[in-house]
Design a protein that fits this description.
The complex is a heterodimer of chains A (433) and B (276).
Chain A lengths: L5 H15 L28 H25 L2 H11 L21 E2 L2 E10 L4 E3 H4 E2 L13 E4 L15 E7 L1 E2 L1 E8 L1 H16 L14 E9 L6 E7 L4 E7 L5 E8 L4 E3 L6 E6 L31 H7 L3 H25 L7 E3 L2 E7 L7 E2 L8 E4 L3 E4 L2 H20 L11 E2 L4
Chain B lengths: L1 H38 L19 H4 L2 H7 L9 E8 L1 H4 L12 H13 L1 H9 L1 E13 L5 E11 L12 E9 L12 H22 L3 E10 L17 E13 L5 H14 L1
Parallel strand pairs in B: 1-5
Antiparallel strand pairs in B: 1-3, 2-3, 4-6, 5-6
Helix pairs in contact in B: 6-7
Classes of the chains: A alpha/beta (433), B alpha+beta (276).
Chain lengths: 433, 276
């Protein structure tokens, strides 16, 4: 910047002359200051609004363009981190988070509660095994049972109508979290599994020896029942691998009837002698699930969907804008509506009536918390009433796995024609030039 | 006055240029900078004590993934495939004397036996265009006549020289598909001699392309089966309806894109096919 001292020097000389003449000079009384150019002497400063406007427009356009492309190039996670820095309350408002920033917890999955032993799922609060039973002896893969009593599956998708005196209660889950000492699968399941393994080799390039065998391993779940208000009509429903429902009745509880609805071969242990039982296998009436297939209500829609709840992580992700979970929760909602329609028509009550639901559970309690814990009823030495299956194995877990693998290998060998290596023949080479 | 304005404008231009260049031509600018700086990179001193690393003869191809699978001469890849189809009845899936399985298991049998059934096509490939051959993908399904349709993809290692794509400047991959012509009113019957003749015909065209352009690969040969029917619903009597076969061949070359266009390559191949 230029600083022209000539005007100041001249003013200073005038001031000194005036002082010598005896005049009183007040500093700062030089008259209004003129706005002059800093480049040329004593020339008034000119305004250039158009020029300056164009310059600023270019500068702002360049900065804006750079900013836009720069922000576009920033990775999404870095954007989220920057957004979190700017917005201090983002972490406490689920709707403000990105779907991928909402994690599943140890007890809440995308599709609802997942409560491992010793948690006991109830209608109201969460208990532990010690609150309900004593002398606990959980089942394991090698628990020795007494006998398998087959249940002939219902040929139509109907259940015995509940009596007026009976009270309907139920459990609806996807996976039971306790092991069970038996394996079962159908010939069709075996064929489908072998076909998948063959296609993994012939289409996926997987080595022949890496095929996956079907185990048919079942799981189990303890159903503690303390409701003594009326004879109970239990509806035990699941959508995942087959479940052995281990009934644990408190004193004075009466179970009149048990209806099982399962996507896989299921059974019931510790069934009272005078309790009747029936079973519906979903695959007998509903084709394998495909997206959208269960959205519309239809006859015999017995796949036991659960109604999404606001606390499910999948629901939170839906709120956060995840299209994947919007679709999934939509499927659950529509599937539940279709299932509930069949359930209500068949049993006369809503599918949510007195029903405990969870995605995964090891123990559930139907009824109030007992005043005193009652004795746990082990599966050991008990009969298991089981849906009939083409292939059913009991006994040592290793022996069961070996038996299943043998069936798998026998079928594969027969299908290939003897030599499994024919699935992936060796490269053919030209002999000679 | 004027000088000051020019100075401000120049200053702003200098300020704005990197922003505009980096945002609109960032990758090109970085490539240019990398290239320029690489020229001044100090050379690694050569010492006689260190053994030089063995040269990979296919380093040039390995550095170019788009070309590698097409031109690599010692590896079966999915860029050189012969696609075949075979239609068989359930009995033909079985060995002689083997019991017919239940209907529910036939799909399993067809899927499991498709690789062995289609391996016979490798014999024809080895006899004509291939040094080696492998069945890399099979699929089976039942048609409306109850027969089993076995689809397969066979990767092969070319027996003929492919040419040297590394000598091509401004190279670009050109591919085009043509249906091989046939003589007479009907397509050839679907038998090994017919298919072998088609493979030889395709290779001859590829050889001509290689002579002209320096390289050529038969990147795809698809044998399409054609069955003759009286109507859409009625098949001709047995033994009067031989399957016919048609071959669609894809030729791929690596040629100078400055002197060669996609259309002109298709025209060139069409001309060669017509003259062949």
């Amino acid at each position: 910047m230029t600083d022209d001292h000539r005007q100041k020097d001249f003013a200073h000389r005038l001031s000194r002359i005036a002082q010598e003449r005896g005049e009183v000079v007040t500093p700062g009384q030089d008259g209004p200051k003129r706005d002059v150019s800093e480049f040329e002497y004593n020339i008034p400063r000119e305004n250039h609004p158009i020029r300056n406007g164009i310059i600023w427009a270019i500068v702002l356009a360049a900065a804006g363009t750079g900013g836009y492309y720069g922000w576009s190039a920033v990775p999404a996670d870095m954007k989220a981190a920057l957004a979190a820095l700017v917005s201090s309350d983002a972490s406490i408002d689920g709707a403000a988070l990105l779907p991928e920033d909402i994690p599943q917890t140890g007890t809440m999955s995308d599709q609802g509660p997942t409560l491992a032993s010793p948690a006991v799922v109830t209608a109201t609060d969460l208990l532990t095994l010690n609150d309900v039973v004593t002398q606990v002896s959980l089942p394991h893969e090698n628990t020795v049972i007494r006998d398998i009593i087959p249940i002939v599956r219902n040929v139509s998708c109907e259940l015995r109508a509940p009596l007026a005196s009976e009270k309907i209660a139920g459990v609806r889950i996807e996976n039971a979290l306790l092991p069970a000492p038996l394996s079962a699968f159908s010939d069709q399941q075996l064929t489908e599994q072998v076909l998948q393994n063959i296609e993994a080799v012939t289409q996926g390039g997987v080595a022949s020896g890496q095929a996956m065998a079907l185990t048919g391993q079942k799981t189990s779940l303890d159903v503690f029942v303390t409701d003594t208000s009326a004879p109970l009509y239990l509806v035990l429903q699941n959508m995942g691998p087959g479940v052995i429902w281990n009934l644990q009745l408190a004193p004075d509880v009466e179970v009149a009837h048990v209806a099982m609805i399962g996507s896989d071969f299921s059974g019931v242990a510790n069934l009272p002698a005078d309790t009747t039982v029936e079973a519906l296998l979903v695959a007998d009436f509903v084709p394998p699930y495909q997206y959208g297939a269960d959205d519309a209500p239809r006859a015999c829609m017995i796949r036991p969907w659960r109604n999404p709840q606001p606390e499910w992580i999948g629901s939170l992700k839906t709120q956060a804008g995840s299209l994947t979970f919007q679709n999934q929760m939509y499927s659950y909602t529509k599937g539940y509506q279709a299932y509930n329609r069949w359930f209500t028509e068949t049993l006369g009550v809503d599918a949510a009536t007195n029903t405990i639901t969870a995605r995964d559970a090891a123990h559930v309690l139907l009824g109030p918390k007992p005043a005193e814990p009652f004795s746990y009823r082990s599966m050991a030495g008990q009969d298991i009433r089981m849906m009939e299956a083409d292939n059913l194995f009991v006994g040592d877990a290793t022996a069961r796995r070996d038996a299943a693998e043998r069936l798998h290998l026998d079928l594969l060998t027969a299908a290939v024609g003897g030599d499994i290596s024919a699935l992936n023949p060796p490269v053919m080479e030209r002999k000679g030039p | 006055m004027r000088r000051s304005r020019i100075s401000i404008v120049l200053f702003l231009l200098i300020l704005a240029l990197p922003v505009i260049a980096l945002n609109f031509g960032g990758p090109k600018v970085m490539d240019w900078l990398t290239e320029r700086t690489a020229r001044f990179a100090p050379e690694t001193p050569v010492t006689t004590e260190v053994e030089p690393a063995p040269q990979d003869p296919f380093q040039w191809l390995n550095d170019r993934p788009a070309l590698r699978d097409v031109f690599i001469p010692n590896e079966l890849t999915k860029a050189r495939l012969v696609t075949v189809k075979k239609i068989v009845n359930a009995e033909a899936l079985l060995e002689s004397g083997e019991d017919m399985p239940s209907e529910a298991l036939l799909e399993l049998y067809a899927a499991a036996r498709a690789p062995a059934q289609l391996m016979s096509y490798c014999t024809e490939i080895i006899a004509t265009i291939g040094q080696s051959c492998d069945v890399v993908h099979t699929q089976s399904r039942q048609d409306r006549m109850g027969n089993w349709v076995l689809d397969g993809q066979l990767a092969y290692l070319p027996a003929a020289a492919l040419g040297d794509p590394s000598t091509v400047e401004n190279g670009q991959l050109f591919s085009t598909e043509v249906v091989l012509p046939y003589t007479g009113d009907l397509r050839p019957t679907n038998e090994p001699p017919s298919r072998e003749a088609m493979l030889i015909q395709a290779q001859a065209i590829c050889d001509e392309l290689r002579d002209r352009l320096g390289n050529c690969v038969l990147s795809g040969v698809t044998f399409e089966l054609i069955e003759l029917w009286i109507t859409d619903l009625e098949v001709l009597p047995a033994d009067t309806n031989p399957e016919r076969v048609e071959a669609t061949v894809e030729f791929t070359v690596y040629a100078d894109q400055m002197t060669f266009a996609e259309n002109s390559f298709a025209d060139l191949v069409a001309g060669l096919v017509g003259a062949n």
